[in-house]
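S.,

Sequence below, as promised.
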Amino acid sequence: MAASHPNPRPNILFLLTDDHNFRALGAAGNRELRTPNMDWIARGGVHFTHCHVSNPVSTPSRASLLTGQYGFRNGVTFFRQAIRPDAPRVARELLQRGYQTAFAGKWHNDGRPCDHGFYLMRNVFLGGMHNYESIPVVQGPNDAPAQVRRNPSEVFTDGALQLLDGGCDEPFALFVWYTAPHDPRTPPEKYEALYPPEHLSLPPNFMANPAFDPGTLTGRDEKLLPRPLEPAAVKRELGRYYGMITHVDNQIGRVLHRLQEKGQLDNTVIILASDKGLSLGAHGLLGKQNMYEESVRVPLIIRGPGFQSGVKCDALVDLMDLMPTLCDLAGAPIPDAVQGRTLTPLLTGRRNRLRDSIFCHYAHLFRMVRTPQHKLVRHLKTGREELFHTETDPYEQNDLIGSAVYAPVLNDLRLRLAHWRKTLNDPTL
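The prediction came back faster than expected:
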């Protein structure tokens, strides 16, 4: 059943970044990084400090976001897989409730946005690897890609502004999904210059090599720098990463300014999130195909009429919770097949918790369960397990497997994970 919203039928602006570590945000306490527009959203909204993804790669993470379902249910657990035809789609639900649904930016799932309920499209990138000097984009359901020789973050923002100026009638749901700060990390020169590598700090859990091979070291992400990782090289990569985040923050500012000019800002729910995080030297890793917090935990900030303002919420939430939340905002019933949970009670302050555990999976390699205080990671190929007390060890540097003190915790987490896998028919069982 849909929850009532204090300001019925607000506009919706959904901003999504790519490979954005939850710590790479001024509002998250990062004093080396400049994100004034993202911080503005946080100051007037609810900052979910413990938002996780159910899968740490783009295609399945975005599929879960669109459907409100785990990949085992919607059919997408890896790249190049199509969402099952019977899975719900958030844009279809919004469209049926009278929202003009629109999409600009990176589309990383099957078909095109229009196949999934988006009524309007502008400057849509259909995914894959890319560079930041030019990008192929499509404008309509049957258009061939056309190369645009501009930075993608600027191209996608241009598309969003065109939609706001010439197509989006109220109420609208505009999704602007960026590629930044995904590699190749080549920010505009002036933005890279903001972050001299020698002035940047390595992650506290930086390692030249991982403590063990997690099974992903041959992946593309992990081969972007030579091993062992050199601190100076990681800092250069970090400077480029920060430059890209500040640049996309600037583009987000363009969208916010246009909403203000049109008098639509106060009646617009703004969602800022990312599809997964990135390691960048943490645990001796560079990519996101792992279960550490740097990869599976992402920024999530929601600002809008009737919501709490300037609040940090540490409740465990999942990115797929956005699908039922958006249904709530639109006054639409949440489909029975949706596995996410609406965030509305947290946004309005009626509750401070939704669940006591969350889960994550990646290919045939990893499964994870996390509670407010603990995390268990299972490496399926080797049988290895890692156990962390995340409250006292936020950088996951002290593996508690083998500790008699934590044996009851370990048993509880094993049972939770086993139940979840069985319930969802995990194909690796």
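Confidence is low (pLDDT under 50) at residues 1-7.

Coffee later?
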